[in-house]
Every structure is written in C-alpha cells, then in structure tokens.
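Retro notes (design track)

What went well: tokenization of the new backbones is finally stable.
What didn't: we kept losing track of which sequence belonged to which structure.
Fix going forward: every design gets posted as structure first, then sequence, in one message. First example under the new rule, 656 residues:
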C-alpha cells in the first residue's frame, strides 16, 4: 500500500509539476475509465473497499465537471444522492461544500417524496471533487485516452466470451488490472451539434472516444444512439432581474449528506434564482427555423423529462414554458437558463433569448448545443453492473442509457464496490427494489433496458413510502459497512446509533398513553376527528401535523425529553410516526408480492377486459402489450403501481 500511495503521489505530482518521467505502476486491482460523476464514485468506492485503483481520464482538470446544469438533486434524484451518501459516496458531501442555493422540492407532499436539490457552484464542485479524489488513499489518477481493452481467456467458472485484463492507451502503452469499469458518459462516438454544424466531441471542448466504441461493437455489444442538449449561458449583468419572480433559498438549508448538520454557507449568503417564461415569439423563431436545426430533425431519442425548447414547442405549441435563471456559482458572471436547451444556430439562439421577459438585453456568452452519442443496451449487464459478455468488465453512468449526474453517481458507487468484490472473489453487492432507488434504477435498466435517456422519479419506486431520503442510512450504511467495507467506521457508528435510537424511540412512543385531557392540549380542536374522551398513544399524537417531539415532550418530559436533544433524531421520529400505519400496511404488501413474485400469469389473460380488478386503463394496456410472465415482471413495468400489482395478484390467485 505504501508503494501504491507513493505511486499515486508521483502520478499526481507528475500531472501538476509536468514531470512526465514519473513512473506509473502497470498493474492495478481496478481501473476506472472516465472522471465524470460515475467514474469518480466508482474509483473512490473501489479504493474505499481496499482495492488498488487507477482512475484513467482524459484530463485531470475536468474531473468532476458538470457537463450541463449547475445543480444536483431534485425529485427522485435527491433520493439517489442520499443513498450514494449512505454508502459513503462523494457527491453529497461535495455538494454540501459547494452549493449556492438549497431548496427542497415537493414540500407540499410528504417527506417520502421530498426532493433535496441545490444550485451548485460549478468551479467549487470541481475543485472540491478533485481535492477529494487526489487525496483518496489507494487511488491513483492518470491522464490518458483509453483506446482499447486487453482481453484474455475467460475464467471457466463464469459465463462470458472473454475476460478483460487491462487497457491500451492512445500512446500504445498498456496498464493491467483485475477489473475495468467503463464510465465514458456521452463520449462514445460523441458528436456535438449547433444548427447545421456537427463536430466530433464528447462535450464542448473535449475529444470523443472512438476507438473504445469500435472495440465494444467488435466484441458484440448492442449499441444504440441517444441525444441530449444544453442551454446557452448568459451574462449575469445583462439580465433585468428586477422585473422577474425571485426565488429565495430555504432557511435552514437541508444538507445532502447524513454526516453534515449544516452546509458550508448560511442561507442569507446564498444566491437567488429567478423565473421567467417563453412566449409566442420564441415559438415562432423555433418553428420558422426547423430547417436550420439538424439535432431536432434526428430521430434519435432525447431526454423526455428535460426536453429541448424545440421539442416543447413542437409537442405543446402556444404554451408558455418556464425558464429558471440559475446562478453558475458564487463569483460566476454566468447564468444558466434552465428549460432553454436549444440547438438552433448561435445567432438565432441570441435572437430567441432576447424575446424573453427580463432577457431583452441579454448577452449570450456560450451558445447551447446538442450532443449525440453511443450507449450500450443496459440489458447486457448484470445487477452488479458487470457485463454478461466480458467478464470483469463493468459499465456505469450515461454509457448505460441514463441521464443525470445522480443516476451516474449511483451506478458508479455500485460498479466500484462490485469491481472490488470481484477482485476479492466475493459475492456481488446488489441493492433490491425494496431497499433503495439504486435498486429500482439498476433493476429497470438491466431488465427493461431503455430507448430514451432514463432519469429517476419517485413514481418509478413501488415502495416509495419506505424508501425515503431521511432513512437511506438505515437501509444501506450498515450493509455497506458489514458486507463490503466501503463505509467508514465513524459513519457506521453514527448510522447504527441513529437506527437503534429510532427503534427505541418508536417503541417508547408506542408504550406511552396520554389521557384525553393531556393530548387535547397539544392538538387544535379543528384537527381532531376522533372520540375526544379516549386516551391516545404518544405515537398517535405525534402523527398530528401540529405536533412535534418538542411539543410532545412538554406533556411527557420523562422519558421523551432525551429524544429531543438530537434535532435529526426528533425530526426522524416525527416522520416515522407519520408513516407508521401506512408502512405497516405496505410491509404486508411487500411480503405478499415477494412471496408470489414467481407466480405465473395466465398466458391467455385478457387484460383489456379486466374491468372489475381495479386496474386503470393505462395499466391494463401496458400489461396487454408487454404480457409479463410473472407477477414480479408485471411489477417492474414502469407505471404499473404497487396497488395494481396487489389487485392483479389477488385476482390471479382467486381464479387459479
Ligand atoms: P461524464 O460526466 O460525461 O464523464 C465521462 C468521463 O469519461 C469524462 O471525464 C471523459 O473525459 C472520460 N472519458 C470518456 N472517454 C474516455 C476514454 N476513452 N479514455 C479516458 N477517459 C474517457 N443530464 C441531465 O440530467 N439533464 C440534462 O439536461 C443534461 N444535459 C446534458 C447536456 C450535455 C451537452 C451533456 C454532455 C450532458 C448532459 N446531461 C444532462 C448529462 C449529464 O452530464 C450526464 O448524465 C453525466 O455527466 C453522466 O456522467 P458520467 O460519469 O456517466 O459521464
């Protein structure tokens, strides 16, 4: 390890001091190709698991680069970040050191579907990520373009055509490893597009990865093509913010990481965002110039949930579309107009921007552009993210057809852990759909595949009431520590303490009974809909919106006061109480579905006429077209709800 860590220091020094003669080790446990959001997590996770790891990427100074929006999190995505953090991943902690505007989305709904989100200082994120990566023990970093894979005979005990044993760089040099993780994002045969101009590039200013794409195709991997795009950047000083709707950050800010109580910056020092809208003039410019826009003419699929302005105008004409003006950083002069991803020729982009309220005098600093790239059908990988075709080769991130930093990070951490476990000949670490959004993401990809950029939503998770952002540590940290060793002792101890305190707290709350005279003092008259003379369990009193642990402890100081001393514990007890009865019901349903996952669905079942089974027409139509073989497969069809599966299961069992 001393040698490895010295190698790492030499490599880092080699990069920063220009000492190109510094020697490079030629054999590692794990090589990760790509320093984006999947690659950084994969490399750090493999190293945390004790594997000597090399991160090979085009440029050290683009490690952690946010290719598009300067923000992390959101609905479903914030959940993934909490889970990455629960496995001691990096992105949540780095966001807590780099955010400039923290806001929880979906507050009107319950905490199970809150979306932790923050605007991030692009420069700071990159700096903090690079600092973290370059100081991770057992992790070396090397610049280089990987052009090919070194392949050897497969291990007889594992299926697969061949086994990867290293990589070939553009200069012809080779580096060997037990496992290789590929996280090349949008770079495989990447082409960027503005108007009618097309240039080979992974993203603006970066070379594409062509040799590697050819290698993968030659190996027999099924390759598809997807596209995405990014908006222009606008000079901050050229925007008239005074006439726009201002959005202020939350106070207090909720950190992404379980190990942080606060973020690096006070809410009053954070930056605002502003909202404006498109108008019919924008539609007109888009529609009049479709012939000058090759990206939009491409039949390749783009992101459904983060579409370009052209797609929105074509799909929903005559509507006003939101444009959020978001800061790119604390000292940045740029504004990112979210919602305005566009590939028109640059001069038309500027003309379009100037039609929008508040942007009449806007100065465009960088035009928006599109990118088209190869992705690999994710049904070619296992739930551990290892490929079926080539042993010890793992894929993670946008290469698997996903979009978004969080989806990439989530896959990265799992690929890094599993590559390390593979080296140690240990069984893979798999997160199930009932354990986490990471499980939902990977299960969707590996079983259903995708033909459009896949992004996470809470609606994709059947058991979202138990997969909450607040409890990701209870779900994953203990497993991560005990089964794979990717979680630090300090984090493990904290998560164990929290889990046992919650269990103890819930059982205490269940055991205390409050007389009606006591509980009526805590709950406003208007909120009470039960018999006012009955006693209530403390847990049931805590379910009322107006009651929190602090208030409850005023009525029963002993033994409840001690559960108010840790703010997070008190808040989590409140959330647990709110979901207690619904979760009990859901646990029963999970058990019921798990027991019968393999139950065969009748081959001749006519779903379209199943009107008495409480299935929506949309669900019946999906079942009709996909014709799943088992209940488990039916439950994995996007949009088929857990409630629908329960109804279908009960129907099939009664008719068998
Ligand atoms: P990336 O972050 O792309 O990282 C890939 C890394 O691999 C890079 O460091 C690259 O240098 C390295 N690399 C590639 N090939 C090689 C090689 N042969 N040798 C060595 N290193 C190599 N997401 C959204 O959620 N919403 C959006 O609106 C959105 N728009 C986007 C617009 C554009 C123009 C782009 C480029 C991306 C957009 N994304 C968007 C996607 C988001 O940026 C990605 O999902 C995310 O960055 C993927 O992470 P990754 O780690 O898989 O790949």
């Amino acid at each position: 390890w001393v040698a490895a860590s010295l190698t790492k220091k030499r490599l880092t020094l080699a990069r920063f001091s220009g000492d190109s003669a510094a020697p490079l080790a030629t054999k590692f446990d794990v090589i990760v190709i790509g320093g984006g959001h999947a690659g950084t997590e994969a490399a750090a996770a493999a190293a945390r698991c004790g594997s000597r790891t090399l991160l090979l990427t085009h440029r050290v100074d683009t490690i952690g680069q946010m290719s598009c929006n300067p923000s992390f999190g959101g609905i479903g995505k914030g959940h993934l970040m909490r889970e990455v953090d629960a496995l001691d991943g990096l992105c949540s902690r780095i966001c807590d050191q780099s955010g400039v505007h923290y806001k929880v989305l979906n507050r009107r709904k319950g905490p199970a579907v809150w979306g932790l989100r923050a605007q991030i200082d692009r420069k700071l994120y990159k700096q903090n990520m690079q600092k973290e990566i370059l100081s991770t023990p057992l992790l070396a970093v090397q610049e280089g373009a990987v052009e090919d894979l070194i392949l050897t005979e497969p291990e007889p005990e594992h299926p697969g055509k061949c086994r990867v044993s290293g990589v070939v760089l553009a200069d012809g040099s080779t580096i060997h490893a037990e496992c290789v993780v590929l996280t090349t994002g949008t770079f495989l045969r990447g082409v960027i597009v503005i108007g009618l101009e097309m240039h080979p590039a992974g993203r603006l200013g970066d070379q594409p990865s062509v040799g590697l794409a050819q290698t993968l195709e030659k190996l027999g991997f099924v390759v598809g093509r997807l596209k995405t795009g990014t908006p222009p950047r606008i000079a901050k000083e050229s925007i008239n913010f005074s006439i726009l709707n201002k959005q202020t950050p939350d106070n207090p800010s909720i950190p992404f990481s379980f190990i942080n109580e606060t973020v690096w910056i006070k809410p009053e020092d954070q930056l605002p965002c502003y909202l404006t809208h498109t108008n019919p003039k924008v539609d007109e410019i888009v529609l009049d110039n479709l012939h000058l826009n090759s990206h939009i003419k491409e039949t390749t699929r783009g992101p459904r949930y983060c579409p370009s302005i052209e797609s929105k105008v074509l799909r929903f004409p005559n509507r006003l579309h939101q444009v959020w003006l978001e800061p790119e950083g604390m000292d940045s002069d740029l504004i990112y107009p979210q919602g305005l991803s566009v590939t028109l020729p640059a001069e038309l982009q500027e003309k379009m921007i100037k039609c929008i309220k508040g942007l009449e005098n806007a100065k465009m600093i960088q035009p928006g552009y599109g990118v088209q790239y190869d992705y690999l059908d994710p049904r070619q990988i296992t739930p551990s993210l290892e490929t079926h075709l080539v042993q010890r080769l793992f894929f993670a991130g946008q290469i698997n057809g996903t979009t978004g930093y969080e989806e990439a990070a989530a896959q990265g951490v799992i690929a890094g852990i599993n590559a390390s476990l593979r080296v140690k000949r240990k069984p893979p670490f798999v997160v199930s759909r009932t354990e986490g959004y990471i499980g939902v993401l990977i299960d969707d990809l590996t079983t259903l595949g995708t033909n459009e950029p896949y992004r996470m939503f809470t609606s994709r998770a059947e058991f979202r009431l138990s997969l909450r952002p607040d409890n990701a540590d209870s779900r994953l940290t203990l497993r991560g520590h005990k089964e794979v060793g990717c979680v630090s002792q300090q984090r493990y101890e904290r998560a164990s303490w929290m889990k046992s305190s919650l269990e103890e707290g819930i059982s205490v709350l269940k055991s205390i009974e409050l007389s009606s005279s006591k509980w009526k003092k805590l709950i406003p008259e208007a909120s009470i809909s039960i018999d006012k003379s009955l006693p209530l369990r403390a847990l049931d009193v805590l379910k009322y919106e107006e009651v929190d642990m602090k208030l409850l402890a005023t009525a029963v100081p002993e033994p409840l006061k001690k559960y108010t001393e840790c703010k997070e514990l008190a808040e989590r007890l409140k959330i647990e109480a709110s979901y207690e009865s619904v979760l009990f019901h859901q646990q029963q349903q999970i058990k019921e579905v798990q027991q019968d996952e393999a139950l065969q669905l009748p081959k001749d079942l006519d779903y379209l006429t199943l009107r008495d089974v409480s299935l929506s027409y949309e669900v019946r139509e999906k079942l009709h077209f996909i014709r799943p073989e088992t209940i488990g497969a039916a439950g994995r069809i996007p949009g088929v709800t857990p409630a629908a599966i329960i109804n279908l299961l009960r129907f099939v069992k009664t008719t068998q």
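Added context from the reviewer: The CA atoms of residues 76 and 456 lie 5 Å apart.
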